[in-house]
């Protein structure tokens, strides 16, 4: 057993409690203890073997028996939860036990098991790079898992930086004896603050788990103001919160998990088709529901999204993980922007290498980028592979990696064949994504498309000599999986700051309005209302925000839109009667207009209209015509609140 070299322990006080409190689940027993259990995890930089005491919880008193819980590296990735692996292994290895003797009694009582309750993350610097291992520190007797509980799951954020933090994000675990047809899922959530170089990130964690069917409801609170009339004639405004709920989980093919408004629970409901809308008494009736009207409405909706037509995508494509992570950073589950200042510009595109050369040269087709777009930042993403061992393997620890723009000497009037764009030191033995800034090259390509001859990567030793390419290897588009292929990520701004309606006249209706105001999904009991008989309802219902779900699958766009599947645009409905209360958020102009209408001072002056007074942006992650993945932010797409204007 060799000692561990260059390792360190982390103190995670304030983020993750070192000892997890299970007051009602654990009881101490004398022989339920942690025992040493060394696991070989690789070689360090000098080539010496490295083993770490990950520990194990003894399952029986006396002789050494097969442990019920042991840490290690088999069967899980470095980002997976050790405890989740241990739980599954405990269930699998539990078989017919040998007859118990006085020397091999169970370490815990009846219906209990010796399990880990204290964990830490330990890091080792190995030949292939840093490796993280979860280590058991303490063991206690726990009640055997019979249903569904929350279990710890350690995650590392901002690794290899001064802001490196370990957080217990939590997970859910269940036993084999749980009822069939149910899943152990998160139902309560919490959050933890993580300090970053520019701000503080909010990390969602699992606080509680329950056994639920595939479709289940979780709390979701919305706030609004209501006016309370007191007996003395005084009106008081109160902030009221309502748990409107939201649905999580999946259903069988062809069904959706929808909120049942009668019971405020989530149930499996058949997905309504657009043919169902023909039976509703609204402008989208059978009389108007022609193919021409539908095509015109969808065409107008495409214009809102800045497209001439839906991209033709054939077959299932997998978007780059970087783009998925970026989308989840800037948008919530419905695509609504978390923070408008997170994203640089309003468009991010990813391009794969089109050259597929055996040499370290790359070329990207940028023809889908409009010349009117402002180029903000361009990045070359290369995946560094593990080096092949050579005779000079242990001589070099760092290399100088430089990215050059290939030039056309016939146009530049110089003999210079390439131009340096970015250069930096990279550890020889590391593996993973490396990012280089190439903004200057992309800007020149946008001015002259023919000047795009591609990029070249040159690797040298610290002494300036050409390095053996078996030591520094980057994944290519020809020989490696799509998830590791070279990629250009481009941040741009197309200048679109907001969208506006063609007419502010509430009686003016466009074909897009017909499409969006039709309930593309949702329970028929709420959507099948006659607009002809809504005058009485309009007088009794004050101005408020109501759901309006735009379902991309229903429209036929699910083939090229990655996320979200749809979004709640909301719409404003209701009357603005005199006098206008502050809960209706009236403008001064609306207040004056309401007074003029009430006093009948001028003919033809209508009451103020119930319209959105706060609008939010949404984000779309989709494939374009060249099968590049695009993340685009669209302003003014969600009604955040309604008021009388």
From TrEMBL:
Gene Ontology MF, one: growth factor activity
InterPro entries in alphabetical order: Cystine-knot_cytokine (IPR029034), TGF-b_C (IPR001839), TGF-b_propeptide (IPR001111), TGFb_CS (IPR017948)
Domain TGF-beta family profile: 526-645
Gene3D superfamilies per UniProt: 2.60.120.970, Cystine-knot cytokines (2.10.90.10)
Subcellular location: Secreted
Region of interest (Disordered), residue spans: 498-539
One Gene Ontology cellular component: extracellular region
Protein name: Bone morphogenetic protein 2
Lineage: Eukaryota, Metazoa, Chordata, Craniata, Vertebrata
């Amino acid at each position: 057993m060799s000692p561990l070299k260059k390792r360190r322990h982390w103190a995670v006080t304030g983020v993750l409690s070192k000892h997890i409190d299970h007051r009602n689940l654990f009881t101490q027993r004398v022989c339920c203890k942690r025992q040493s259990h060394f696991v070989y995890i690789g070689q360090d930089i000098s080539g010496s073997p490295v083993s770490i005491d990950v520990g194990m919880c003894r399952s029986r008193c006396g002789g050494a028996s097969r442990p019920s819980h042991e840490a290690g590296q088999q069967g899980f990735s470095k980002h997976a939860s050790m405890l989740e692996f241990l739980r599954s292994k405990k269930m699998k290895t539990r078989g017919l036990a040998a007859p118990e003797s006085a020397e091999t009694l169970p370490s815990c009582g009846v219906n209990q098991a010796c399990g880990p309750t204290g964990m830490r993350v330990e890091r080792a610097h190995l030949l292939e790079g840093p490796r993280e291992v979860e280590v058991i520190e303490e063991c206690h007797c726990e009640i055997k898992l019979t249903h569904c509980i929350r279990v710890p799951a350690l995650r590392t954020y901002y690794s290899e930086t001064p802001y490196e933090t370990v957080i217990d994000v939590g997970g859910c675990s269940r036993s084999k004896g749980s009822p069939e047809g149910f899943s152990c899922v998160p139902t309560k959530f919490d959050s933890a603050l993580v300090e970053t170089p520019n701000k503080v990130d909010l990390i969602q964690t699992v606080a509680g788990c329950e056994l639920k069917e595939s479709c289940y409801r979780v709390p979701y609170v919305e706030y609004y103001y209501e006016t309370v009339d007191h007996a003395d004639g005084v009106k008081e405004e109160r902030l009221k919160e309502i748990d409107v709920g939201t649905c999580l989980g999946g259903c069988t093919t062809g069904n959706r998990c929808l909120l049942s408004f009668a019971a405020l629970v989530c149930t499996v409901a058949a997905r309504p088709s657009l043919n169902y809308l023909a039976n509703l008494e609204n402008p989208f009736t059978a009389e108007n529901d022609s193919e021409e009207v539908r095509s015109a409405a969808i065409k107008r909706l495409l214009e809102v999204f800045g497209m001439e037509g839906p991209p033709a995508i054939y077959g299932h494509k997998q978007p780059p993980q970087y783009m998925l992570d970026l989308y989840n950073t800037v948008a919530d589950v419905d695509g609504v922007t978390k923070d408008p200042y997170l994203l640089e510009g309003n468009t991010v595109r990813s391009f794969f290498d089109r050259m597929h050369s055996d040499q370290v040269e790359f070329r990207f087709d940028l023809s889908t980028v409009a010349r009117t777009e402002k180029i903000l930042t361009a990045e070359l993403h290369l995946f560094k592979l593990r080096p092949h061992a050579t005779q000079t393997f242990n001589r070099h620890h760092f290399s100088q990696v430089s990215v050059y723009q290939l030039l056309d000497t016939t146009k530049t009037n110089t003999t210079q064949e390439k131009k340096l764009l970015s250069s930096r030191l990279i550890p020889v033995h590391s593996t993973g994504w490396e990012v280089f800034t190439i903004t200057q090259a992309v800007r020149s390509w946008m001015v002259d498309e023919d000047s795009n001859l591609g990029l070249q990567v040159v690797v040298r030793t610290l002494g300036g000599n050409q390095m053996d390419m078996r030591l520094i290897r980057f994944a290519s588009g020809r020989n490696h999986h799509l998830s590791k292929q070279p990629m250009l990520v481009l941040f741009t701004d197309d200048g679109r700051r907001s969208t506006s309606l063609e007419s502010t006249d509430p009686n003016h209706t466009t074909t897009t309005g017909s499409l969006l105001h039709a309930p593309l999904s949702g329970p028929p009991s709420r959507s099948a209302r006659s607009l002809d008989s809504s005058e009485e309802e309009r007088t009794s219902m004050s101005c408020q925000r109501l759901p309006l779900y735009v379902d991309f699958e229903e429209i036929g766009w699910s083939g090229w839109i990655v996320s979200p599947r749809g979004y709640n645009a909301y719409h404003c409905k209701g009357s603005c009667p005199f006098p206008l209360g502050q809960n209706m958020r009236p403008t001064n102009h609306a207040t004056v207009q309401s007074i003029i209408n009430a006093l009948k001072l001028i003919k033809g002056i209508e009451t103020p209209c119930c319209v959105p007074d706060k609008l939010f942006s949404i984000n779309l992650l989709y494939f374009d015509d060249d099968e590049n993945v695009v993340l685009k932010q669209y302003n003014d797409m969600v009604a955040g609140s309604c008021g009388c204007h």
